[in-house]
Design goal:
The chain is mainly alpha-helical and 61 residues long. Helices cover 49% and strands 10% of the residues. The protein has 3 helices and 2 strands. A two-stranded antiparallel ribbon has the order 1-2.
């Protein structure tokens, strides 16, 4: 859940955070992998807490 003080992240912001190309995020999404995203109109938005949690899960595996 996003805190009231932290906005959702764009694909570019998530790519920068994870240090992967934007295209990688789109590929992951097609393969049902990667951090969860919500489609708002034609745009993807990510909850920063979900991205961080997903990252922690990956580094723990």
């Amino acid at each position: 859940m996003t805190s009231q003080h932290e906005a959702t992240w764009t694909v570019d912001e998530v790519a920068a955070y994870l240090r992967v190309p934007v295209e990688t995020l789109y590929t992951w999404r097609k393969r049902h992998y990667g951090p969860p995203a919500a489609k708002i109109g034609k745009h993807l938005r990510y909850d920063p807490a979900d991205v961080r949690a997903w990252f922690r899960q990956q580094s723990a595996a």
